Amino acid sequence: MPILSGANWSTNSEKSCWYALAGLAGSKTDATGKDSSQWAFPVFLRDNDKDFYSLPYSWNGGGTSQTNRYFACALAGTCSGKTEGGWLFPIFDYKKDKSFKSLLYSWNGGGTSQTNSYYALSLAGKRSGRKTGWWLFPFYNKKKDANYDRKYACLDMDKLPEEIKIWDSVYTNWTWNVKKKCCEIESIEPRRDGTYFYAYNKADLCLVSDNDRIVSGRLPWKGKEYKITYEHNQGNRLAYRYEGEREVTFDISTRKKISDIEEGESSLFFFLYNASHEHDRMTNKSYANRKVLLKLWDWEEENGDVSLDVFPGFTYDSKANGYTKTSFLWRFFRYERDPKEGTSVDILFVPIWR
């Protein structure tokens, strides 16, 4: 390998190459002449018809399904082939039918089941597809499963729809390595995270208040009944809060509804105001209770019977059969009317009427 004015060269039956400036510049070529590369660091690097790199302009991927071109130290560029698009940093980045990103407006997920749009550095945006909703940070954020309304409607059906398929599956209990068989239920539509009965509708207000609604299904172990549960949580503990649940049970063999029970609790400023209720939608039996400052004002109703207590000594009772009683400080004043026993009146602890 002779030295020629600071340059080296060599050749054999397979390839030939030369170097200059201690290898900062050079060239390589195989015996066929098809595979060759040249470089001059840091000006450029060229690899036959595959790649070319330089500070002002570069490209790679020649001869493949993807070709990218770069400009201005890769701050700008274009894509062609399998993925098409371009970018100009920091102004925008675009991939055809997949995504577009910029400071003021962006979107992604094109061509898939989910597309999100972003505005103002992602402080606001919109969801569409498998999940819907919108957000405006930090004031509001809403997410809703596209199948939520259809699955929620199952709660009010008298019979489980045929599109909900019941099937048998076998799973393994890894603790004892024993296989157990159980019935499960699945939704007819495919999901990335599995096929099961679940949907949600959630909203957050100013990062301190939520409004979450969830519909889910489950089958008790060795059960012959399938339960669909609706949960609703709203507000926060500092001001107004509501927590409710509705559970609907279907018979697996007939798919008919056999029970529908709803219950919930609400509060305002902790114990300033509290309320609770239970309602059996199948038998129409119900119970409700409302309180102000725990026992300052206490109202209770069960299947048409009403009871009211007001501190320090006022009470009122009413029953569905027509019975009523009003009293203050026991018999300081008492008025009682019973459809069977008649009317009684006490004033200053003295019986006035019997």
Walk me through this protein's architecture.
The chain has a domain of 133 residues. The protein is 1% helix and 60% strand. It is built from 1 helix and 34 strands. The strands form 2 sheets. It has a 32-stranded antiparallel beta sheet. A hairpin with a 1-residue loop joins strand 16 and strand 17. It is elongated.
Rg over CA atoms:
38 Å
Biggest sheet descriptor: 32 strands, antiparallel
The residue fraction in helices comes out at under 10%
The total strand number stands at 34
As a percent range, the share of strand residues is over 45%
Q: Uncertain regions: pLDDT < 50 for 5+ in a row?
A: 1-6, 167-195
Overall pLDDT, averaged?
A: 79
How many helical stretches? 1
What is the overall silhouette?
A: elongated
| N→C terminal distance | 132 Å
Which structural category fits the helices and strands? mainly beta
Secondary structure elements and pairings:
Layout: E1 3-4, E2 7-11, E3 15-20, E4 25-30, E5 36-40, E6 44-47, E7 51-54, E8 57-60, E9 66-71, E10 76-81, E11 85-88, E12 92-95, E13 99-102, E14 105-108, E15 114-119, E16 124-129, E17 131-136, E18 140-145, H1 148-152, E19 165-173, E20 178-186, E21 198-205, E22 209-218, E23 225-235, E24 240-251, E25 257-268, E26 273-280, E27 285-292, E28 297-302, E29 305-310, E30 314-318, E31 324-328, E32 333-338, E33 342-347, E34 350-353
Antiparallel strand pairs: 1-2, 2-3, 3-4, 4-5, 5-6, 6-7, 7-8, 8-9, 9-10, 10-11, 11-12, 12-13, 13-14, 14-15, 15-16, 16-17, 17-18, 18-21, 19-20, 21-22, 22-23, 23-24, 24-25, 25-26, 26-27, 27-28, 28-29, 29-30, 30-31, 31-32, 32-33, 33-34
